[in-house]
Amino acid sequence: MKTAIVILNWNGKQLLEEFLPSVVNFSLPEAEVYVADNASTDDSISFIQQFYPTVKIIENKVNGGYAKGYNDALLSVDADIYGLVNSDIEVTQNWLKPITNEFQKNKNTAIVQPKILDFKNKTKFEYAGAAGGFIDLFGYPYCRGRVFNNLETDQNQFDDIADIFWASGACFFIRAEVFHQLNGFDEDYFAHQEEIDLCWRTQNLGFTIKYLGTSTVYHVGGATLQETNPRKTFLNFRNSLLNVVKNVPKKWFLFVIFSRLVLDGIAGIKFIIELKPVHTLAILKAHFSFYRNFIKFLGKRKQLSKRQDYNLHTSIVWQYFVLGRKKFNQLK
Predict the structure, then answer these.
(1) Calpha distance 173→21 (Å, rounded)
(2) Is 225 helix (H, G, I), strand (E, B) or coil?
(3) Which residues contact 265 (CB under 8 A, 6 or more apart)?
(4) Nearest to 224 by CA among 63, 4, 49
(5) Full-prediction pTM beyond 0.90?
(6) What is the pLDDT of residues 206-261, one digit of tens each?
(7) Which helix (H) or strand (E) holds 110?
(8) DSSP structure string for 54-106
(9) Cis ω on the peptide bond leading into residue 29 (within 30° of 0)?
(10) Contact of 140 with 316, CB cutoff 8 Å
């Protein structure tokens, strides 16, 4: 079973200098390492060629974001398993063995995510993925080890192997045949939450998604687009709504859409109270973009079968903000 680690890069020479060494040192010879370059204008490619000649380079013609960048690049990768790894990920020794073992043992496992801890504070789980993702009735994502902005300390509470709903785009592995059966990522997302859509569609095919606490990586987070950037707010709110339109089962559809519009409005007011009006504006822009894409995504919806039992917790907003449940094991 051939494994390929594919790092998407855009003007990220500094990140490659810092994080590529661990990927190369702890992945070869078990896996081939690729850098898929999204039309960078810095000297990322010459840096790799000079210092890491064993790393294969794929040059995308345009910067199509995370979704198109990987879709284009993976057409050129000959492997059974794709490992999609952000350029700001530090991996650890023997991180690959538990992952490849899982794919070999369980043919129904299509996607695997390792434990993702915070590079800046290695005792904490990292926002983007933590110990595996879930989604509530209204399409809001959260993780074991991270509910909204509350990050848990890693005390070995998630050193297990568990079924999850979505794996983080910061670092996850997928069977190549499944990725291509699904036609890869939906490029209309550009970036953020496209991995949730991919995982949703993967489960619609009957496959499972696993979290492995026996493999650990460290993620900087926000290295390419910081949490305080309104562009990130725009993409997260818009793409979350697109996920709802595309994937929520019919019996919940109208209720969830209406509820989300109300809840997003409340989030906009909260940003104003917090003196962050640029994020309120980002939510408004996200909704206008959502309205423009609504009919298009209804069309995509018709092509999909819908998983019926995705809402493991009724409302993460209610539990977190009203009931004060800040940790995953407190959720009902």
Answers:
(1) 20
(2) coil
(3) none
(4) 63
(5) yes
(6) 999 999 999 999 999 865 555 678 999 999 999 999 999 999 988 889 999 999 99
(7) strand 109-118
(8) TSEEEEESS--HHHHHHHHHHTT---SEEEEE-TTEEE-TT-HHHHHHHHHH-
(9) yes
(10) yes
